[in-house]
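does this look right to u?? phenylalanine version
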Amino acid sequence: MENLDELRDDLLSQVKAADLEALEDLRVLALGRSGTITEMVKGIGQLKPEDRRSAGQQLNVLKNTIADAIDARKEVLEAEALDAGLAADRIDVTLPQRPASAGRIHPISQTIDEMVAIFCEMGFTVAEGPHIETDFNNFTALNIPPEHPARQDHDTFYLPAGEDGERKVLRTHTSPVQIRTMVNEKPPIRIVVPGRTFRADHDATHSPMFHQIEGLVIDKATHMGHLRGCLEEFCRAFFDVDDLPVRFRPSYFPFTEPSAEVDIGCSREGGGLKIGAGAEWLEILGCGMVNPRVLENCGINPMQYQGFAFGLGIERAAMLKYGIPDLRTFYDSDIRWLKHYGFVPLDVPNVAAGLVG
Ligand code: PHE
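got this back:
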């Protein structure tokens, strides 16, 4: 039975080279129901009786040798596969986390959110209007007729005249939204209007595009005490200084009478600017009682209704609150600037300063 040794060696070398799949094929080919060795066992009956016993023993040995070799090879291959899987899926829990690069909220958006939140708590709602305005809404209805000197102060951007000869303007302030609201809504009115405004002016402290927030309150008995209380409360809440000194100085705007400018206290000791009680004042907003002529221009009876209005620059307020030194940097779109001065967005709305990472 020399060929049995040959068969064994051949099968063993095949087992040695097989992968897991080939190994199962091999098992079927050698030991399966019609496998090579199984067929030989079945053939024992045809041998001479005296040869049967030793043939049976040899085939049994061969069968066991091959089965054992297949099992051993299978074990090795399975262990190898497991090791490879573990190595590939390995997680290094000591690695530092990847930096999460979340966007930042621009200081102008943040400041608008903060201001709107303060006024909304006082019962104001938000109104908006278009950047391109009629001359009437931006000037005439606000008691600034064509020959009025206040028009020169505004450095207006005019659009080319339309077919009807009308020249529209880029709104020079948010005040035209006062007009739009009073024309379209009945008092009581209590709105704030954040938005973009435009003036042909460009230097270190002026940008041709900037932001304002306007306020308007119209009701039957709204008086100057309300104006004072509202703006004092706003300044203290916005700058987060409870005892912030707030001063009203007489001023002039064509659309308010009387008019005032509001200053807040500050000090400049030690070089830095500090908002709060101190030796100096900073102008922060313009305001006044709505001029009866403006009410009339909007179809509101000034004998029945009165109210107040105010307007302030958002960039300036943001610069003061957050110590941003240069107005022009707001519009440079410099990502490093935004990383420094921007705000981390949170799920909680209007969580203000102090949380920048
Ligand atoms: N519209 C004025 C400005 O741009 C600000 C203002 C608004 C003043 C409302 C009084 C009342 O300077």
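The pocket of phenylalanine is lined by residues 173, 175, 214, 253, 256, 286-288, 309-311 (CB under 6 Å). idk if thats expected tbh
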